[in-house]
Amino acid sequence: MAMSQDAHTVKQFDVQLANLRSLVLEMGGLVEKQIENAIQALNDENLTAAREVIARDHVINGLQVKSDEDSVNLIALRQPLGSDLRMVMSLSNITTDLERIGDGAKKIARMTIQIYEGVGSPPSARLLRDIMPMSKLAIEMLHNSLDALARLNTEKALQVTKRDGDLDEEFQAALRRLMTYMMEDSRTIGHAINVIFAVKALERIGDHCKNIAEHIVYMVEGKNIRHRNIDTRRDVAAQDTLEK
Amino acid sequence: MNKPTSAASAPAILNRDIKTIVNAGLKRRHAAETRFRWYGLIAVSLGLLFVVLMFGNIISKGYPAFWQTYIQLPIKFDPAVIDPQGSRDPKTLESADYAALVRAGMRQMFPKVEGRLELRALYGLVSSNAALELQSRVLQNPALIGAEQEIWLLASADVDTLVKGNIDRSLDETERPIKDNQVGWVDKLKAAGKIEKQFNTILFSSGDSREPEMAGIRGALMGSFYTLLVTFLLSFPIGVATAVYLEEFAPKNRWTDIIEVNINNLAAVPSIVFGLLGLAVFINFFGLPRSAPLVGGLVLSLMTLPVIIIAGRAALTSVPPSIREAALGMGASKLQMVGHHVLPLAMPGMLTGSIIGMARALGESAPLLMIGMVAFIVDVPKGLMDPATVLPVQVYLWSDLPERAFVERTSAAIMVLLAFMILMNGLAILLRKRFERRW
Amino acid sequence: MSTTTLETQTALNGALNIGAETRSSQPGILVTDYNNRQTVGKITVDHPKMICREVNVYYGAKQALKNVGLDIGINEVVAFIGPSGCGKSTFLRCLNRMNDTITGCRVTGQIKLDSDDIYDKSIDVVQLRARIGMVFQKPNPFPKSIYENVAYGPRIHGMVNTKAELDDLVRASLERAGLLKEVATRMEEPGTSLSGGQQQRLCIARAIAVNPEVILMDEPCSALDPIATAKIEELIDELRESYTIVIVTHSMQQAARVSQRTAYFHLGDLIEVGETDQVFTNPKHKLTEDYITGRFG
């Protein structure tokens, strides 16, 4: 059963649901910006920008608290059922994932500061070269999942879940490379560890994006595709669409 | 926030100040209300006025009938008159000339009166009932013979009327039922304290009579009782059974519709038509005796049945359907549902309806005229087949008689009739209040 | 949880000779096809107490229920939901033939209690209603004493022989209805003197006194406050162990709380039936979705 687009008999219900969704989308936009900024700061070796990213994390946290309150209110006052219930629960879960993604951005920013603030020499470009493609992939996943949320598009959400595998492979490759660097030259170990934290954060962001996408599928289709084999996901998701 | 706030789309009238608009018409509305209240008050007081007039008229006329004038005479139970042989044989005692004793007593009171006409006028002061009174006393207690006693004896109706002040003394002697000399004797008796008004037990203990002072309503009362007994025993079970069948069991179709319409019509049929029917069917066809309470009861049953059926059905419909559903849901059969739950709940309503129907039957006279219950019947009926009359018919009979004393008796009978009506309606209200269930 | 295999369904359907229950074009959705209308979800259960097939109800010329097919499983609570006039109460009343009392009401199709067709001529409606008890929307105790209310059923059906047996039965029924403590000292007071919630529990006690197999409840809590409602709901949950319960309710929360399966009716059609949690979180039919989410026109 796809989401019904008809209005509720109680108009205020619609307004509250729409507000909650736009709050989550706003939060998503902010998180996306945070990651972009964190990566940009790393790229530009801009410590001020990195500090700004860290400082801005509490805004995201505040939005999460606000959306939690709104969800609880909706459940208490409107007793949502069916697709409404799925939407409220999914949005609530999505905000958790978004908040974690925000934390990921903060980690990258902190790493930037650690790498460039220290007295030692900056890391070679070799060490950092995995970060850019991975971050690009992670940002794309986040962007697509938010897009899927805005449009309630399961197709797009399913695509996001598939990209997570790519990101995982990138992460494994990056780890292997970084390990080789560390074995070649033990002086790089300090930087390499920081970079490992960064790519790990990016990998986690990808996981959270996948979660968001899965929540969207559940919200729209009512089917839980989490913890399933990628190949069966589409089937499971598609099973439930009936001619309306 | 979603309130339709667009004043532009609302009709212009809504933009005007509602307070002034309402205030403008307020005075007129209040005036209309006050006027209406007055109409109601006037109607109610007019109705009350007529009720008071009617009751006042009846009571003021009928009240004296409950008191009867008695004359105290010295009576000597002369053995030579009553029982010359001294056998004390009840037969002899019964057939003795007690009137002679009364006459002797009168002569003793007024020794100076002479001449046949004068004496007859003197004897006329006492009712012919006086001799019967003495006879019954002697029969009860033969030891009285030989004794001499002051005894209160019933005065004649004319004396009674005179004493009650209903005869104009200024009229010429020839236009009065009572002559000058009689008036003189009455005055003398009064002065001597030998005339007294006592409570009228005869009214309640004896049947009809040509002599007003001896006429009572007991016969009519018993007639009414037997008639209503028959009516109740017939119409209540049949009426309740009909109501239950029509309301609970009968399928709703054209036939039951026709029956329903006819029952309603029957309730509106003039009662005299039922009398004609009774005459044709019960007396002429079945050969039942005329004037019998049985026939009267049958006729009144016909008249009361539709009332009971209609009241019964109303009582049944007022039993909430939830009770029926509860019983049926428990697996009760239809008869069990009706018998255990619906009928007990409807019974007070049915009884109320029946009592009101019976009260109507009690006041009915027209159909009974048709079946001969209008005859002059002296004996108090002792059963359903004895000739009898009923209270309203007795009222009708007495109201036709010329004697002044019957006027007050007519009103007295009406008062008794009304008292029974009020009693029955009161019982109906009591039953309703007592057993009315709130669920 | 009923996890009927497709084979048993087919076997059942074959035996009852009804419209085929099929999987729709999309895999995974069970749809029972009745002429022009489909019931979404599985109408059959593993251990049915009652089996209804192609039930149509007409009030005069008006069709109030169209081709409804549904199984009611042993010891389960089935909730009927839907907007007013959707036929849920009508269907409920078909199950113990309470519709018989309505003039002009005609029922076609087949309703079986165990193996007996309840509309068969050989089935006496009195016996049927002893087997299928009913609790109504408005608490409707008889205007008699509390004791008499509960004793009525056993009495008319001749279930007990002695006064002591009857006493025991009355007390046991009141106990099961959770009312005994409250009324133990006032058995002779009229049933109507109790509070609304107590009256309704008295009605339930009255219904279970004859030990029915199925209890039908027609909006049993609609006239009660939330606390009384909660007590009744708790009671329903307890009674489920011994009885099969069908409840009509306007409160979706109530249906969600007390039932294992939920059926949604709309304009005389059985639109959707399924496990209660599924119906309330992920209804398959748009009409069900619109109704439970409050989008119903």
Written overview of the protein:
Chain B: It is a multi-pass membrane protein. Chain B: One of its GO terms (molecular function) is phosphate transmembrane transporter activity. The complex is a heterotrimer of chains A (244), B (439) and C (297). Chain A is 82% helix and 0% strand. Chain A is mostly helical. Chain A has one domain: Methane Monooxygenase Hydroxylase, Chain G, domain 1 (Up-down Bundle), CATH 1.20.58. Chain B folds into 2 domains: 66-199, no CATH class; 218-435, MetI-like (MetI-like fold), CATH 1.10.3720.10. Chain B has a 3-stranded antiparallel beta sheet with strand order 2-1-3. Chain C is an alpha/beta fold. The chains are: A mainly alpha (244), B mainly alpha (439), C alpha/beta (297). Chains in contact: A-C, B-C.
Summarize the structure.
Chain A: Homodimer. By secondary structure, chain A is mainly alpha-helical.
Structural key phrases:
heterotrimer; A: mainly alpha; Methane Monooxygenase Hydroxylase, Chain G, domain 1; B: 439 residues; MetI-like fold; 18 helices; Phosphate-specific transport system accessory protein PhoU (chain A)
Please tell me the CATH architecture of chain A by its name.
Up-down Bundle
Strand content of chain C: 25-35%
H/E series of chain A? HHHHHHHH
Measured distance between first and last alpha carbons of chain C = 33 Å
Q: Indicate the mean pLDDT of chain A.
A: 88
Radius of gyration of chain C: 19 Å
Task: Indicate the low-confidence ranges of chain A by residue numbers.
Answer: 240-244
Give the % helix of chain C: 25-40%
Number of helices of chain C: 11
Keywords (chain C): ATP-binding, Nucleotide-binding, Phosphate transport, Transport
InterPro entries (chain C): AAA+_ATPase, ABC_transporter-like_ATP-bd, ABC_transporter-like_CS, P-loop_NTPase, PstB-like
GO cellular component, one term (chain C): membrane
Protein name (chain C): High-affinity phosphate transport protein (ABC superfamily, atp_bind)
